Amino acid sequence: MSRTYEHAMLQEIYEQPEALTATIARYTDAGALSADAFPKIADILRGRQRLVIAASGSSRHAGLAGEIMLEDFAGLAVDVEYASEYSYRSTHTLHDPGVLIISQSGETADTLAALREAKARGLATVAITNNPESTMAREADASLPTIAGKERAIPATKSFTTQLCVLYLLTLYLARLGGRMTAQAVYAHLEHLERLPASLAASLEGWEIQVREIAEKTVSARGFLYLGRAIHYAIAREGALKLKESAYIQAEGYPAGELKHGPNALVDEHLPVVVLATFDHHDPDSVLRYRRTLDVMKEVKSRRGRLVTVATEGDREVTDIADDVFFVPAAPELLLPILEVIPLQLFAYHVATKKGYNVDRPRNLVKAVVTE
After folding, report:
1. Within a domain: residue 366?
2. pTM for the whole thing?
């Protein structure tokens, strides 16, 4: 029996496995990257060592995750700009970079202005949008669409995870193009990516049951702190944004290691702290970051802070520290963000609806910001 959803936001959260499957199919063929799906990318980005990502809101958070992907796998130096700032920055910040524009609608005024400024500077441009007919997709030198389908709710959900997916696929393509990854390695990475939508689909209902309980416990909180390291910092930022725009609660995303550099002053029994503590046990750097994150969690508990944690299935150390834990399926480090952001989307949704807010149309917000 098909489910009836009270809000478009919740329906779009549940549509993410399908959206990811469609996006992966758009860029792959028989378990390999499809060269035809990356039009002009080889010509305009081959040999470039620097890339600027310009975006706003959730799209910028996807860009922050993409920065880690592109630097770690493709060996590029990446600078992530607020689209609203890019046009006013010095023209000498990076020498002859490629410019990657990310926008759900492809019409966002600040991001479109950044694209046009980049083109005026004679730079190569690539657009990631959810509308292949959008102004950005048409004006950029190359277009890489997400296949999320129409997103009606203002808070980005499936458009965000499909942006992460396209950034990961682009990273593999550029890593292969630059000779930093063999065809077999690309194939192995794609195998992990292709398994991800099924893992997500199997987890959604369990997460939602858990979220309802945790939302009930924390709905009266006046503020939240979200913490994550490396690529997970981008998801901490996105989780905090979802709560702000959906539930009208002040929330901030910080690198976990920055807790002692100011935010620790806020931590007490009244401030829930959401920590991204997932890790890839095959990756020694990921394991090290995880161990350091456990230390941060212990610090929070010593201050009587309430800990809500997203962790990897099978992790028992986290349960000894945290008050509540969402477990996500094991995955490679750079794919974990696609999984771990979804419990945070559900959390924002259920806190907001418990407060009686219209999550599809939050006050003062529009789906596409078309004026500066």
Report:
1. no
2. 0.96
Neighbours of 219 (CB within 10 A): 15
Q: Determine the length of the chain.
A: 372
Residue 62 per-residue DSSP state: H
Residues 154 and 59 in one domain: yes
Domain match, 140 and 210 both: no
Q: Which two tokens stand for residue 372?
A: 């500066």
143-189 pLDDT, tens digit each: 999 999 999 999 999 999 999 999 999 999 999 999 999 999 999 99
Our CA dihedral for 330, 25, 100, 10, rounded to 10 degrees, sits at -60
Asked which of 180, 195, 210 is the last residue of a domain, the reply is 195
Domain extent for 46: 8-195
Sheet strands (E) in the chain: 28-29, 32-33, 50-55, 77-82, 98-103, 125-129, 142-143, 223-228, 250-255, 272-276, 306-312, 324-328
* Nearest by Cα to 273 from 258, 283, 288, 286: 258
Tokens 């004026």: give the residue. 371
Give the tens place of pLDDT for each residue, 254-269: 999 988 888 887 788 8
